[in-house]
Write a structure and sequence with these properties.
Elements: E1 2-9, H1 15-27, E2 33-36, E3 41-43, H2 50-53, E4 60-69, E5 75-84, E6 87-94, H3 100-103, H4 107-120, E7 122-125, E8 128-132, E9 141-144, E10 150-153, H5 159-170, E11 174-179, H6 186-196, E12 202-207, E13 220-224, E14 227-228, E15 233-236, E16 240-247
Parallel strand pairs: 1-2, 2-4, 3-4, 8-11, 11-12
Antiparallel strand pairs: 1-16, 4-5, 5-6, 7-8, 9-10, 12-13, 13-14, 15-16
Helix pairs in contact: 4-5
């Protein structure tokens, strides 16, 4: 069995309080994997202190840092990190696109994205094969409105890229999708989650929340084999929402 924990944070949290809550959740967790929402931490500098702050060495944590500076010449946002055995590790990957407009007819970006998934976003945790899509990268899938929103690969003319994406899914047990803000058109998103969780895969997503009420079903989604999972343990405060799932 594997226990996975989804964490949503209030988007208006100041960075120091966010950091404190982040560390506290990790240290009090009994899960195997924690997936934090997008913008888990704000500054790259915050990562450097985590090894001294995290006492829980048993949980693997996947999180995103909003602002990363690799050098004076290379800067990017939404960098992906992992904590293993209490030690933070830069995965050296970041969100490549957020809207379908950035990807439509952009075969070079699509090819780069598939390569990123193959080399930096696909790995094993607790004997489970994990694939990570960051927020709007879910737009690698599009919906055919005239066919009951059927989900398909966004650039079907590149059959080679579609085959590579499908092979990635075949080698995946769990798809993780950290999100910055809840996505619109949940009808289409539902179809995409069905696809990503088909063939005995799990799909989990968790988002920040900017609304007054912290508890909301739209913040976190869990699917298995095309069906939404509802049974879970939930913890809600004014600043965060946590749901836990136990999977085989």
């Amino acid at each position: 069995m594997l226990k996975i924990e989804l964490v949503s944070l209030r988007s208006s949290l100041k960075w120091q309080k966010r950091h404190s809550i982040f560390v506290d959740i990790i240290n009090h967790s009994s899960s195997d994997i924690i997936l934090f929402c997008g913008h888990s931490l704000i500054k790259e500098d915050e990562v450097y202190s985590l090894e001294q702050e995290i006492a829980n060495k048993d949980v693997t944590v996947l999180f995103e840092v909003r602002e990363i500076e690799e050098s004076d010449f290379v800067k990017f946002k939404h960098g992906l990190f992992m904590v293993e055995q209490g030690k933070p590790r830069n995965l050296f990957t970041n969100q490549l696109f957020s809207t379908h407009g950035e990807l439509d007819n952009n075969e070079m970006l699509c090819e780069r994205f598939i390569q990123e998934l193959e080399n930096k976003r696909h790995f094993v945790i607790k004997e489970k094969r994990i694939l990570i899509l960051q927020c709007g990268e879910l737009n690698i899938i599009k919906n055919l409105q005239g066919k009951d929103n059927q989900p398909i690969f966004r650039i079907p003319q590149r059959e080679d890229l579609q085959v590579r994406f499908e092979k990635l899914l075949e080698k995946t047990d769990i798809v993780l999708n950290p999100i910055h803000t809840p996505m619109g058109n949940q009808g289409k998103m539902h179809k995409r989650r069905e696809l990503l969780s088909s063939n005995n895969r799990f799909y989990f997503s968790t988002s920040q929340n900017g609304e007054k009420k912290m508890e909301a079903n739209s913040l976190q989604y869990a699917y298995y084999n095309g069906n939404e999972l509802y049974e879970n343990n939930i913890e809600v405060t004014d600043d965060y929402q946590i749901r836990c799932y136990v999977i085989e």
